[in-house]
Amino acid sequence: MATRKIVTLGNVTLRKKSKPVVDFDESLAVLLDEMKATMIEKKGVGIAAVQVGVLRRAVIVEIEPKEYLEIINPQIIKTKGKVSDTEGCLSVPGFYCDVERPQYVKIKAQDRHGREYEFEAVDYIARCICHEIDHLDGILFVDHTEEGQKYKKQHGVE
Ligand code: CO
Question: Is residue 100 annotated as part of the catalytic site, yes or no?
Answer without folding.
Answer: no
